[in-house]
Amino acid sequence: MVKSRKKFSILIPAFNEEQGIIPCVEETKKVFENQDMDYEIIIIDDGSHDDTFSVATDFYAHDERVIISRYSPNQGKGFALRHGFDLASGDLVVFMDADLDLHPEQIMTLYKYMVDNNANVVIGSKKHPESIVDYPWRRKILSSGYYFLVKLLFGLPVTDTQTGLKLFEYETLKVTMPKLLIKKFAFDLELLVNVHKRGFKIIETPVNLSSMRLWYRITLKDVYYVWMDTMAIFYRNYILRYYD
Question: 48, 67, 136, 200: least CB-packed within 10 angstroms?
Fold first, then answer.
């Protein structure tokens, strides 16, 4: 593994994660400590209704590497990541889900791809030919349909915008974040559209994904909102030229 003298900021949005947030953070800490890399972990409590915030603050009360922030009411994953980015001090920024469907050890794979390919952004992709994925067929259909739509509308050089593990140079996010408006699921798409539009290099890596409970959270209402937000991004990009 390529060693890094850079600091990683790992952003973990959390909504009703009182049972899972500590295992997630502990596994992430192990990865970076085993690699002897500098890091900070930023937990963003996205208006949880349970005890996510108190569980995390009690457990990490004396851990300077773990930053915990909260707000209310719930705003969505995109809003949480923008909020967390404002707190980040690292040279590299990781977006990671709190459910351990994607183990944090895979961050090291993303970093190696970034160094080897001189990339600004590296994203995990369920569609990569070397990926190992285990998730329901209904979700596979939705994912494939959304990829086709995104490719048709935006021509992005990626096969999967929604997998919850991504690595960015801090400076790339600093340039692209101010234009973003989406608060929920289509945030990833809006961000990558802006990254691509500004000429930053994006590459994909394989992932090992084992579905725990993420997919049943996605409802038909969520699918509708993703569709509407995607169309809004298309309108802002090609009609309003808002992102120029």
Answer: 136
> Which residues pair with residue 102 across a beta bridge?
209
pLDDT tens digits, 151-200? 999 999 999 999 999 999 999 999 999 999 999 889 999 999 999 999 99
DSSP string, 56-110: HHHHTTT-TTEEEEEESS---HHHHHHHHHTT---SEEEEE-SS-SB-TTHHHHH
**What span, in angstroms and rounded, lies between the C-alpha atoms of 63 and 76?**
27
pLDDT at 45: 98
Please, what CATH class does the domain formed by 7-239 belong to?
Answer: alpha beta
Cβ-in-10-Å burial (0-12, 13-18, 19+) of 36 comes to exposed
> How far is Cα 124 from Cα 117, in angstroms, rounded to an integer?
15
Distance between CA atoms of residues 237 and 244, nearest Å: 8
Averaged pLDDT, 211-227 = 72
* pLDDT for res 1: 64
pTM: 0.94
Cβ(106)–Cβ(165) below 8 Å: yes
- Measure the CA–CA gap between 239 and 20, rounded to whole angstroms: 42
> Pairing relation of β-strands 165-169 and 92-96?
antiparallel
- DSSP 8-state secondary structure symbol assigned to residue 180: -
